[in-house]
Structures
1.
Amino acid sequence: MKKRFFAAALAGMMALSMTSFSASAAENLVFASGGTTGTYYAIGGVLATVLSPLMEDANITVTSTGASKANIQIIDDGDAALGIVQNDVMYYAYTGTDLFDDEEPYDTFAAVLGLYDETVQIITCDDSIKSVADLKGKAVSVGDAGSGVEFNAKQILEAYGLSFDDIKVTNASFGDSADNLKDGKIDAAFIVAGAPTTAVVDLATVKDVHLVELDDEHIGLLQDNYGFYTKTVIPAGTYKGVDEDATTVSVRATIIASTDVEDDIIYNFVKAMFDNKESLVAGHAKFEFLNLEDAVKGISVPFHPGAVRYYEEQNITVE
């Protein structure tokens, strides 16, 4: 178990009266989210607004953070009780690999529920690129250097027998990747985000956009190595000119909790979410994807015992 001061991650936090999240002080649940303009922060705000008046044993307060990696570190430091992360990032933290390969594994958090897909979209304007195998020798944006997207790209290429040595690697944000595709500076880009993604929507207004699909065989190989991926279909019409469904994979935006939070509180938190789904949806469309079956998919770290109890009552098996 790690306990250390993580000043950089806390720099973006709102001024809050923090408490340590021991069993005796777990009623004040700080929710570690993301940047104030992002989806994670908005989701935290809706949870705080809708659920706090309904939960007798806890109050939720959202705070702005550096998102997935920072949220795991903030929970580990005891400065938040809840957070939202990509399920691949939490796997790296739990195993001390990839984004966390220079740190010891984290054991101070547990999964609560998977909320919605963050889809691996391989975007191209070249209709000759139909498979990941076709990326060989091409100029490809793989996200920002050191980002979760970069690891997703490495893993997917690996499933097809390729590596970064087989492509011309470019590191760029989603917006810059879209601009580079528009200008013909790159041939394809990995974008991992909820679909539709604004940068791709904008690109599709000026260029013909194509989605590179993954086939079932290679999805299976990928899942054998990385259990956090789930098969996903991007529906036809998601982007202008994309008239057929496209098969790919997703990681999932997942709510986690400190292992110090009492089981009853997490049980009541999960129950309140499902009992009040309509009110959550009214606050943010991402809550449309909240459902029992998907809540436990793609989770490759232990669940919080309070969440396990709720799922078992609903006849949902938690592995």
2.
Amino acid sequence: MATASSPTSAAPAPRFDRLLLTGAAGGLGRALRPRLGRLCRVLRVSDIAALGAAGASEEAVVAPLQDAAAVHALVAGVEAIVHLGGISVEGPFEPILEANIVGVWNLYEAARKHGTRRIVFASSNHVTGFYRQDEVIRPGDPMRPDGHYGLSKAFGENLSRFYFDRYGLETVCLRIGSSFPEPKDRRMLATWLSYDDLERLVVASLTAPVVGHSVVYGMSDNTTTWWDNTSARHLGYRPQDSSEPFRAALEAKQPELDPGDPSVRFQGGGFVTRGPY
């Protein structure tokens, strides 16, 4: 039995009353959904795809991002948002416009109106995909999107900067590399972000005392890297995983790469050559 002078084993109180996770039916959303639930009293999850049954401490809401009224209702009452929603692959411009550009505008307008304190915005390494793989770049370097998807994420980063400068709405833009259970090819030796490190990065972005408007890369502690992620240190993010244990198998799988291939020359990989549509 616990006494007045002995600690109990009770779990710590959640840091948030209500969080919103958009894109909760996607790959990263499914990975984060149970992990973010530990941070809040209620986790509101949203997508246009099937979400499954809501958990005991969840609210499941279907809300197309291009529907301003639906997004306004979705954001009501949440303290912070992890925005993974939208189209996450390269493709024709019109669907990306609706989901990733109109959709992110609707989200930020709703957050402003409801007084949401902070957004963690899933940007992408494809914002800078036309830098070469023999370069190391920083978040402050000029954007060089590698396609329609990268363009939409560049818009989202600029929009979030505007909402911070004009309205004080804090955002951490995560230029996510390649987040999977393990890296799939040699490119991912540089871009891989483990699910555990993804959780660490998102939690740090939600809980750091002051973030202002921050742009950081979503990457594990990989030996090969194209990105200087010093700007993530103020968040308290310290990656603990690395792609290095997978190197031998991946290099055996892809023993030779053609340096003249744009997908090998540029950081965006195959995205740099997709289209026109």
3.
Amino acid sequence: MERRLGDKLTAEGRRRRILDAGLECFSRKGFRGTTTKEIAEAAGCSEATIFQHFASKAALYGAVLEAKTEVEEILTKAADAAARKDDAGVLRAIGIGYLTRTEHDSSLMRLFIYSALEGNERAGRFFRSRVTRVHEFLSSYLQERITEGVFRPVDPLVTARACVGMVVYYLLLHEIFGVKRPPDISSEQVIDTFVTLFLEGITERGGSGQEVRRASTPSPAPLHHRGRGGG
């Protein structure tokens, strides 16, 4: 029997609730292991209600991916920093964007892991398109700064992937594998540490060092004083 959502929910509100329930269920059991009955129970509606909004389970899965994998906000903030040539700001915008979003809800990361194991091509396309946009943006910015002589002549795409990879690995450890987090370190301080280490590695010696210094200015975390004298 359908558990009524009540007249307070609009059709769009009901659709959003189904999408949220779909993400939760798909992230726990994958596409193949999840039934529309389970999603309906999680959303507090009937299967018939689901099919009023989505033609099939595959259509619902695609809608979940479409709704939950946007990177516009991350790229907008990174582009603002890039326009100012704020290297640390670019990296921080991307790092904080990924970190806070996944710490708030790790379901999407779990869903993509399932999709990779299942070989789900639809999810694979969404993942690649979103991730590729971030990698291409960062790679282009790094190449620009390499040309200007600020960064060492490294492969910009490999370097962009390495930068994002630090954050992704940190999230895998703590959000997926349940490794205990370092005590008394905020998300911002974690990203600040990554940014400093990364810029220390790719900045040309004898060139402008202000990008490295910027990475440690926002928050006086204890970690920052274990490196080069807090600078």
4.
Amino acid sequence: MTSRELILARIRAAVASAPEAEAVRAHGVSPPAGEPGEPGDPVELFAGRVADYRATVHVTDGDGAAGVIAAALARRGVSRPVVPDGLPGEWTPAEFVADDPPLGAGELDRAEGVLTGCAVAIARTGTIVLDTGPGQGRRMLTLVPDYHLCVVRAGQIVAEVAEALERLDPALPLTWISGPSATSDIELNRVEGVHGPRTLEVVVVR
């Protein structure tokens, strides 16, 4: 018997008479005291979490979405963003760069920015998930340009990661975004834009 087998045998013997414990999983939407967002309001909790990640977030209604998107692009100086196929027409600016034929890495690197939708968003973690579906495009579109403007519908926001997983197809290439791309070295010097966009801006449409 190896050392590993001996240790495992001792563990099994020690817990053999212990009662089985039932796993309890609770996925509520109410944030703990002091956290942003009112209990039961995943939109406000999501917006607060996104802002915590140093991303810019706007919450608007359907009628105001186009104006908020246009204003965000104008502030950034983006006159012709890359727009994937399938983005709703009311969100799409008059001038844009289509990914057809597919743009190369060099073209995307020189692009002013990219405007997309998303597959799902998670209130508790402030995470946006893209699955290359309509209005999201290829993974390269949101990993290479330095600026990403993402539009999230309120109905796409779920409370917890487990709920997001239920909506996603694991066979698809999934991109999980929690704020602008950032990393830090051993001295905790933060560097942004290493693995993806340096700037993330999010428009939440109620």
